[in-house]
Each structure stands twice: as C-alpha cells, then as structure tokens.
C-alpha cells in the first residue's frame, strides 16, 4: 500500500514538474517586446561602395553605412541590408536600434588578415585574454553599450574563415586571444535569428554583460576538430533565451559562463534566467550544454528542455575548480535524448586553468540544486562522472527518470557529491541513492513554493486546492 501511494505520488509530482516551468518562464523570455522589427529606414551595403566578390575588403563600407544609420537611431532605427554576394570584411561595430539583415545568399566573410581584427582590452571579469595574457582580438561583428539590436535575415551566412586562426593557435603564433564571430557587450535587447554561422575563430556567439538576449533558429557549424569553437556562450548575462538551434562544432555547443577566478569573483556579475530549448547538435571534443568552467560570478536559474545530442563526447557538463569561487545553483534540465555519447553527465571539478597565480585556491564554488529529469540515452559509455571537490560537496543533485543504455561496467562514478534520485537506470551510485520521494522532494530544484511549504504530510493536496 505504501509503495502504491508513493508511486501515485511520484507520478503526480512528475506530471507537475513538467508543466510549471515553461508556462511561467519560457514565453516572456523568448519574445521580443517593444523592439523594432520594422525599421522605418533602410539602406543596402552596396550604396556605401561594398563589392560582394569575396576579394574586396568591405570594412569601410560597413563602418560608413552604420555611421550613416546612426542618425536614424532616435527615429525608430534603421536596417542595413546585405544582399546576395560574398562580402569580405574586417571587424565592424554595431549601433543601437539597428537591424543587420542578410539575404538568403548573402555571405559575410571574415578577413584572413589578423590586422583587420583590432585588439581590445581584456574583459574585466577575466582579467586577461582567455588564451593569452593581455588584450584580445575584437569579434568580427561587435557591439558595446547598445540597446535594441537585431541580426537576422533569410538564413544568410556569417563565415569567420577561422582556419587561419586555428592554425595560428596550433602553431602557437598568436599574439593575442582569438576573436569571437559575434560579441555583444553590455547590451540589452539583442536578437540573433535565422542565420547560419560558420567557422568562428574562437567561441561563435558571445553575449557578455548583456540582458534580454534571444538567439533563435540559428545553425552554427565548424569542423569537429576546430579548437574552442563553442557555439553560444552567454557570459555574465541574464534573461537569455536560446531556442530552435542546430549546432555542430569543435567544442561545447552552449557554454554558460560568468568570469574567471579572482576577476570573475570581484566583477560579480552572474549569468541567470537562461532558457535553452529545442537544441540539436553534436561534437567530438566538448559537450552539448556546459556550465563553466569560468563561473566565478555565479550561474543560476537555468532551464533546458527538449535537447537532442548525438555522436558527442559529453552530454551535460559542469566544469569548475578550486579557486573559481562563485556558485552554480537552481539548474533544471529535462527531456534530453543522447545517442552515441561517451559520458552522459559529467561534473568535472578539476578544470584547473587559472588566469594567473593570484587566484585563491580556498575560493571554492558552491554547487547545489541541480535537477536532471527525463534523460534517455542510447549507446552511452559512462552514465555519470560526478565528482565534487574534497571538502566542498556538491549537494542536492537530483536525478529523476533517467534511462541510459550503457556499454561500460561501472556506469556511475561519484565522489564528494550528495543528492537524491528516483527511477534511474542503470543503478545509481551510493551518494545519490536515497529516493527523492517522499522525504526529499523539497530539497530538489524545482518545485513550486506552495508545494515546498506544505511539507510531506499533505501528499497530493495541492492538486485539489487551487
Ligand atoms: C554599459 O552601457 C551603458 C549605456 O548603455 C553605460 O552607461 C555603462 O557605463 C556601460 N557600462 C560598461 C561597463 O560598459
Ligand atoms: C561603453 O561604456 C563604457 C563605460 O561608460 C565606456 O568606457 C566605453 O567607452 C563605452 N564604449 C562604447 C563603444 O560606447
Ligand atoms: C528564415 O529563413 C528562411 C530561409 O530563407 C525563410 O524562408 C524564412 O522566411 C525566414 N524566417 C523568418 C522568420 O524570417
Ligand atoms: C539554414 O541553412 C542551414 C545551412 O545551409 C540549413 O541547414 C538550415 O536548415 C537552414 N535553415 C532554415 C531556417 O532554412
Ligand atoms: C604576431 O606578431 C608578429 C610580430 O609583430 C607578426 O609578424 C605576426 O603576424 C603576428 N601574428 C598574428 C597571428 O597576428
Ligand atoms: C579537446 O579539447 C581540450 C580542451 O579544449 C583540448 O585540450 C584538447 O586538446 C582537445 N582534443 C582534441 C583531440 O582536439
Ligand atoms: C522531448 O524532446 C524531443 C526533442 O528532442 C521532442 O521531439 C519531444 O516532443 C519532447 N517531448 C516533450 C514531452 O516535450
Ligand atoms: C553517428 O555515428 C555512427 C557510428 O559512428 C554513424 O553510423 C552515424 O551515421 C552517426 N550519425 C550521424 C547522424 O552522424
Ligand atoms: C587536478 O589536476 C591537476 C593538474 O591537471 C593535477 O595535478 C591534480 O592532481 C588534480 N587534482 C585532483 C584532485 O584530481
Ligand atoms: C521518463 O522519460 C521519458 C523520456 O525520456 C518519457 O517518455 C517518460 O514518459 C518519462 N516517464 C515518466 C514516468 O515521466
Ligand atoms: C572512479 O574514478 C576514479 C578516478 O577518476 C578511479 O580511480 C576509480 O577506479 C573509478 N571508480 C570506478 C568504480 O569506476
């Protein structure tokens, strides 16, 4: 009888878990509000002397067009139309109230000359370039201190031609950290949609210190062996929605970050309120969704659902280390399908690159309240490699309804970790073995407040009260 009730209870809670989050959170974050899709003014890049032959360098044309359009910023904004053609350019700067619109066969090509990618200051939350001390090359498409910026079109292409950068990286002849393909910094109201991004020199799309960012219907591709070509990296940014994307690159498809060691700790700008849904992709040396390894400003309130990763090395990864400080909490990941993935869930706590020797090894990250629900995996080598830090247990890690078809003998390997589970196959490791139900549901993220406060005496009563 008791087990019958716990089963009914479990099913009720499972049903409840699946509906609340999206109804409340999803739709407001993923809709652009009050942003001008219709710009009263429009120009074409050819009006500024651009030549789409793939050879002529058009940096000046982009800069001049955008300078001209700045005069419409307070008149509803303007659209810069890029027609079919191969538009070679160096780095250029966007402005507020601008729509950059790429026609179907428009291809913006990144210059293969590093001088066309000027060097800018390192991010204060990193203290230095991510790869090398000092400055970093500015992204091909860059924006800073902006509001209401849209980069979209009829699935046109932005190709970073990153192979030269990958070669400079491999031959150790870089002078500064490699550039992103698109970086928006300290901006609010950003939409990037319906485009294809190819061959970024480094991380592809990098919103940093931004709010209200939507990335929708984009395809991001780079060779599977290209170094550090992450897809989308929300960094110290909040209210970010990423949906309906296909990503296949050389590193993490999506990586949520918030600064590096002592620099990230003192800058203290977290990434939070992040939605990821309907993401498909693969890689061979990275993960589908990563948090970290730079997470020193904190990461919280991340919701991911309807995720499909195939032929990849890792499904979901949390990367951190001694010295990072910060926190990762209130993470909810559900409906994940993994096919041909080496490690389904990985907590790597020894991601030990540091910006310099001044990090404080006693700054330990707080990792808590992470829920994985409805994960199904086929042809998986290792179900979970879940390692906390000695003296810093990761806690309230909850696994619910996970079924992985695993090919190795020891599917789970857990240490310095604490949490609960229900309906997990193959059998979960000892530290997570205690059932979520009935005693520990309130320790797991995410149950609504009224259920949490009712305790475990009134099983199911929430169903019948409003
Ligand atoms: C961010 O942008 C706003 C204007 O949009 C500006 O006032 C502020 O100083 C900027 N902060 C940084 C750190 O760039
Ligand atoms: C952005 O704002 C910061 C802080 O006010 C300022 O230092 C910087 O010059 C601004 N950058 C641009 C491109 O407007
Ligand atoms: C996205 O691009 C496709 C392909 O060109 C086009 O048919 C479609 O209308 C675009 N969607 C939006 C919302 O602009
Ligand atoms: C955009 O182009 C990419 C690459 O060619 C393609 O895979 C994708 O399906 C296209 N998306 C749309 C919305 O047409
Ligand atoms: C690095 O600097 C050297 C010396 O100025 C220069 O020859 C080389 O082209 C630079 N490398 C890159 C990738 O910019
Ligand atoms: C995989 O990525 C890691 C970290 O980015 C790098 O150190 C390693 O060399 C890469 N391996 C391959 C085979 O590309
Ligand atoms: C789960 O995600 C897949 C995509 O991977 C989607 O087709 C399916 O409809 C989702 N299921 C639910 C219940 O949302
Ligand atoms: C995934 O890998 C398997 C085995 O290597 C291969 O047969 C399959 O075609 C790959 N799937 C895709 C979609 O690339
Ligand atoms: C962490 O990694 C470093 C360097 O890769 C290694 O020396 C150290 O033993 C590792 N620590 C743990 C606890 O695994
Ligand atoms: C468990 O997850 C699978 C998908 O991974 C889903 O089809 C199934 O309905 C879930 N079971 C329960 C009891 O929610
Ligand atoms: C767990 O991992 C540790 C080191 O990563 C290894 O020494 C140990 O054998 C593993 N345990 C199992 C049961 O696989």
UniProtKB/TrEMBL annotation:
Keyword rRNA processing: no
Superkingdom of source: Eukaryota
Keywords assigned by UniProt, alphabetized: Glycosidase, Hydrolase, Signal
A Gene Ontology BP annotation from the UniProt entry: carbohydrate metabolic process
Position of the signal peptide: 1-23
Tagged with keyword Hydrolase: yes
Entry-linked Gene3D superfamilies: Single-stranded right-handed beta-helix, Pectin lyase-like
GO molecular function, a single term: polygalacturonase activity
Family membership: Belongs to the glycosyl hydrolase 28 family.
Protein name: Pectate lyase superfamily protein domain-containing protein
Species assigned in the record: Gossypium tomentosum
Lineage of the species this protein comes from: Eukaryota, Viridiplantae, Streptophyta, Embryophyta, Tracheophyta
